[in-house]
Amino acid sequence: MDQTNIQTGTRFSKLFIHPQLKADVMVREIELLDSEFQLHRSDDMTRLEQLIASTAHKNLPFTKFSWGNKKSLSGNDFLHDQLLSMFKTYFVGASMNLVVHGSANISYYYTLEQSISGDYTHLSCNRQSVLDLLSFFTNSNMSLDFVDKSLDEGECLVESWFNSYYKQTKIPSTITGEWRLRFHANQRFQFPPKNNFLPSLSPNEDHLMIENDNEPLVHKSHIKLWHLPDNDEVPSVSFIVYPALSSELKNQLMVHLYVNHLKDSLSEILYQGGEANFETSILIFEKINIEFKVSGFKENLFNYISEIWKQFKSFTHPYETTFEMVKELVENLLKKSVLEVSGYSNNLMLQEVTESCYDIDQMLKSLSSISYDDFVQFIPHMSSKMFIEGLFKGDISKDESLHMSHLFEESVEIPCDQEYIHIPRGTNTKNVRVQVNSDINSYAEVTFQIGYEKFSAKKTAILKLFHAMIDHNLQDQLSAKEKLGYRVGSNVDFRYGINRFVINITSSVYDPAYLLSRIYNYVKTLEVSLEEVHEDTFKGHIEFLVQTCPDHDGDGDDLWDQITEKRFCQGFNKNLISELKEIRKKDVVRFVKKYLIASSSHSRILEVCIWGCKTSFPTSSV
Questions:
Q1: Distance CA 583, CA 578 (A)
Q2: Which of 9, 71, 73, 172 minimizes the number of CB atoms within 10 Å of its CB?
Q3: What is the mean pLDDT of residues 555-570?
Q4: In the prediction, which pLDDT does 428 show?
């Protein structure tokens, strides 16, 4: 390891050598555990997992309640002592392993065969060991679990932790007889079909010629692709499909249905890809677009993406029963998206500042009216006309990227207009209650809009420097000293066309009004505290940002963010570095007074307040 890794490891090890484990922190963590438990009480899969555990054989450790909440952790006067004892017993070097993840050559730490084979390192198997394992899979040693909405609660038992209603019924012998397994010495076992995505044990390790000219690899009316080579990074391909659709509510819901149907139709391909160590995500991007991301060994990357794309282009219509199943899945996903306060806050923020973000209840009502025939008629619109934007990065050559780009040659549309958000002048407030009636968490988030210019290198440089200077101090003041909540966060980002600075707090103790008052009180102190920053410390922040900012346009994920957010500008990072070197402390102070102080004529502030079940919701917001 290099010196930087050694220093990082040394700092990390201190967490185990001198942990604080304070009693008051333990109490806050119990509150956090209970809050997380309450949020998941209505999740079907979580309830089912606990129900299966509760009905398992009583001698198995699997039957334990593994979530933890106030009830399970209360009434124990020695809990803190037990916590310390557990740490001293189990968190010792002899019981721990260190896993190092990074861009260095994997053969430096492990053999090549181990790195590629993974689960398949043992290339031979003992027949008797397989038979011994299969002998446990008998009908007398198994159970079937079904989720049924039609159960009569009066005839059911109740699981104690999640209050789930259930019935236990013995399966008739007429059915179990057909399942009974009998093993014979001459019985043959059928292994899964060959996985053609698995890499060989002798991958090509030739190093690329790094040619980063900051120009698109492919730039046509229907497609725009970029290439960012890096010998030390796993090859990855990211691309977004922009269909020629408006962002009206029905189209958004159709895209939700489409993406989940597509994943279902790709299940076998995605499973084999996972076995071959391909990381794959297929997500909705900005309401109606689809983002594909794939990373993994280069050897079969083209074949894997080709199969995914082939299915996307040929997908026509699902079975009607599958449609009903996916429709219910989308309904549950929409409900879950606002159960956690931060997800709910994001939805509320977008409702306030965009024209095509809708209330979840409105989305659910519209979803219920979509029929199978409606969906079948919609499907051709997803792939008939579209614009594609993508990025090839990592250990993948220009020629290999061009070869892969031919997959997308059938796209025939120009990009759709992008929607931008706009926070009105002054301070704007959104007050709502939590979605889950039993949720004790309150949430306050303040978003400050920073100007209008998409490509202002100076403004971006000041914003990044400002956040670097105050991030640790903000955490120390609002979390450690004032103990406002178990989750305190701040970030800067660029979303829907604007730079934003955001502060948010999640608390099970204080209501949003009090949290807002403490956030603004902190913001008011920034002018003085920034002026008091020592000049050497100020220069240190600048030097760190300059060192961590690549001098070319983007560094993989950052470049992809710039591309998808439509803010990529050639030479932007070089300009950003130049601006960072010219910033003075007075520029940062002036920035705070201009954009973060509510009384400023330039301020555009959005407050989102989510009131927990134990707080007094303001009557003026009803």
A1: 9
A2: 172
A3: 73
A4: 92
